[in-house]
Amino acid sequence: MLLGTNFRVIAQNENKVEVSFTKTWNPSNNSSAHDLPLNIDKRFVMLRGSSGFYSYGIFEHLKGWPTLIIEEARIAIKLRRALFHYMAISDDMQRMMPTDEDRSAGQVLDYKEAVLLTHPSNPKLKGEVDDKYQYSFENKDIKVHGWVCNTPRVGFWVITPSNEYCNGGPMKQDLTSHAGPTSLAVFFSGHYAGPELGVTLKEGEAWKKVFGPVFFYLNSDSSDNHRTLWEDAKRQMQEETAKWPYDFPESLDYPHANERGIVRGQLFVRDRYINKDPMYAKSAYIGLALPGDVGSWQYETKGYQFWTQTDKTGQFKITGVRPGTYSLYSWVPGIIGDYKYNYDINVKQGSDINLGHLVFDPPRNGPTLWEIGIPDRTAAEFFVPDPLPGLRNQLFNNNNITQKFRQYGLWDRYTDLYPNKDLVYKVGVSDYQKDWFFAHVTRRTRSKNYIPTTWQILFGLPSVDPKGTYTLHIALASATYSHLQGRMNDPSRPKPHFEIPAIGRSNAIARHGIHGLYRLFSFQIQGYELQKGENTIYLKQIKSGNPFYGHHYDYIRWEGPPQKN
């Protein structure tokens, strides 16, 4: 816990109160292991007529200070256990929740966060699984979540009007609210990504960042309908989002709207194998982050990020950008790979920068001969099994089918479906929605060991160019200690034709994440390795010994040799 040692009233008038709790690190008095080399300023703000309070934090590491690694930072709210039992995090994810005591009396499953409720205080919850990771969301969707008290009828809500200070971009997943009752405003963490998504400050490195403000909103109602308070909280969230960037924070490190800039333009996709002319990049995610390599925004942890989506003609407008130097990044649903603008962008106070027409040339070597999945950076389109009857969370049953991946224990269902032989997918016959398991995991043996698995993709080639070069694109939606080897037509070949070495610490399989960090690998296969008629790709995930080792596929594409224009 980051406890302040000094208190100061920053502003106090008839319309606003802002207070500050600070902790200043003294290099000459570094006697406590808990005294991080970090200056901390915790701010709390109340506005007249506003039903709640705001909080934001300022972290500072001065030049010359020692190395510091911060794996996670967040505001955690623990509510009264006797009062708050109903949790809401989205329109279709709301329910009565177990208590901490219910969890303590339950059966711990494969890891401590997952508990089977055996003697809950609410009998309707008996036999369900509770796990805080079942309620994670992507940064772009963590807007409002919280709890409702029945008597008196009061709602407590965490409203996040912007994620400009969060690490990992709009698709990064993190915790929201969970049993406790607990509500979180996560600034950054390694959840669904790995420890590299924490903040690592080298010795002597200067760094300063503002996290928030976040709004903690309270509402009340005399009806018996929980959704009345939820709908009001959504309305308040929309108001807060429209007011961002706020005009009330007193810290000079938080620029107000008139101190920020705008970046706009239009993005096209150029892929002649789809369309001879450049296409509008529809609904593309496009954003600004610290300068780096293509796709580096996924791993960027120290600066700010500003994202939006393009319209149906590829037009975009990124507003409220803090002054600074950025790279422009993008990815397009339905298209593999990442885009990066060739030049750094220097945003100044009041800037309105129009980049004009931008063209993204995605990875492409030849025509598509076949594909598996949808290039959308998730495994959501693949087959997600039903959980075992005794390990369900009723919230994600058939009436909430799109959220079924959140159920506990789905990794072990692979063994139930494929007890002796592994998955075989036949192009043109199989359906990836029914026949492609959502995660390439290990198989459980009778002795409860977890062994490698080898999936097969069977596909026909009416003809083969022995001198041509074919391309296999494999996009991974997540990886957890995954090590993938690929062989063409010969599963016993000593040396694989292609390989993805051990990567990833996302833990997305265990934590019910349908994706983690995105990675794209492209392999060239020479025509003489193929044969006319049926061919087989053997995909072996060789890392074993744990039920959670493996990866989620996003998309696989097989391309023929390049064709002349």
UniProtKB/TrEMBL annotation:
Keywords, sorted A to Z: Lyase
Name the UniProt record assigns to this protein: Rhamnogalacturonate lyase B isoform X2
The organism of origin for this protein: Nicotiana tabacum (Common tobacco)
